[in-house]
TrEMBL record:
Protein name (database record): Beta-lactamase class A catalytic domain-containing protein
Biological process terms in GO annotation: beta-lactam antibiotic catabolic process; response to antibiotic
InterPro entries, per the entry: Beta-lactam/transpept-like, Beta-lactam_cat, Beta-lactam_class-A
Chain ranges passing through the membrane: none
Species in which this protein is naturally found: Hyphomicrobium album
GO MF term (any one): beta-lactamase activity
Keywords: Signal
């Protein structure tokens, strides 16, 4: 994260599952509902990959996957769970989007395009927007502190997401992987020192994907979550769903991979840490009236491939998949 590069109701879901064609795995010979070799470009990327693409054409929904149940590091993609839990609390009247949240060194975290250099207060609504739009980590820690990590984890459990995991805060995550004891927040001053250190002692560093403080989920759980979230399955009021969609539609990753003029609700994530890299994006685009729900997770190391080249290849591969699906859906629905 030092160098962010990339940066239905149950009945409806049950109906889709009942008629969906069998899932296509990576060994399907490249065939996926008349789109030959749809995932080839993505699967050629080095390292570990997990992907699921659900195309819910009303008359003939279909799916293509590869390692969809592998829980991989997902970077900032986890922030959508924070948004949903926060909006549930707003809906219940226990939180208010207009409440002023404090921005100071107590919550400041690096990789915060909006709030890293600001001090004062801002409405919770603005923090949630910064968290999704620019993946601002300070905004994320402000929201997590207010709603509490325990509440977000309860949301994840209630949603049936068995492998999804979130950190207590982005700063506790950074502290832990930098070598601090479990549950320790080393503070903003120490965090800045780590960022500024050109020759750090990496012997104490821990992997980003670990069993204590991490950000991880499988592609299949992201797809199931977004399909339910975007049909109002987690909210009681239509206006809450509208607010969820409004904020999710602001993610800057959308413009990088989704065909132009296509409505989309997504969140991207990334990390570059001690030779380990992650790029990820999950969410849904709407092609005419067809939801296309996706998750692409990619973890690799310096030994697997060059960071800059692989980042560009990831973007191109995801854009190619979404472009091909977009074209095919328009052809089928014409």
């Amino acid at each position: 994260m030092r160098r962010r590069q990339f940066l239905a109701s149950a009945a409806v879901l049950a109906g889709v599952a009942a008629v969906r064609a069998p899932a296509f795995a990576a060994d399907d010979g490249g065939k996926s509902h008349a789109i030959p070799h749809l995932l080839d470009g993505f699967l050629k990327l080095p390292g570990q990959k997990g992907v699921q693409v659900d195309v819910d054409v009303p008359t003939s929904p279909w799916r293509v996957t590869s390692n969809p149940d592998d829980a991989l590091f997902c970077g900032s993609c986890f922030k959508t769970f924070v948004l949903s839990a926060y909006l549930q609390e707003v809906e219940a009247g226990r939180l208010d989007e207009l409440e002023q949240l404090v921005v100071d060194d107590g919550v400041r975290s690096f990789s915060s395009l909006v709030l890293e250099n600001l001090t004062g207060k801002t409405p919770a609504k603005c923090a949630l927007e910064a968290m999704i739009t620019h993946s601002d980590n300070t905004a994320t820690d402000m929201a997590l502190k207010r709603v509490t990590p325990a509440r977000v984890r309860q949301f994840i459990a209630d949603a049936g997401l068995k492998k999804a995991r979130i950190p207590n805060s982005t700063r506790q995550f950074f502290s832990y992987v930098a070598g601090a004891p479990q549950g320790t927040d080393i503070g903003w001053k120490a965090m800045r020192a780590i960022i500024a250190d050109d020759k750090p002692d990496t012997s104490k560093y821990r992997p980003a994907l670990n069993d204590v403080e991490t950000m991880a989920a499988p592609a299949s759980e992201f797809v199931a979550y977004y399909k339910r979230a975007l049909t109002g399955g987690y909210f009681q009021k239509p206006e809450t769903l509208t607010e969820f969609k409004r904020i999710q539609a602001m993610a800057d990753a959308i413009a990088m991979v989704v065909p132009a003029d296509t409505p989309a609700y997504m969140k991207g994530g990334s990390i570059d840490w001690n030779g380990f890299h992650c790029l990820a994006i999950a969410g849904q685009m709407i092609v005419r009236d067809t939801p296309v729900t996706v998750a692409f997770l990619h973890n690799w190391t310096d030994a697997d491939g060059d960071q800059k080249q692989t980042t560009a290849a990831f973007k191109d591969a995801v854009a190619e998949v979404l472009g091909k699906v977009h074209k095919r859906v328009l052809e089928v629905r014409a």
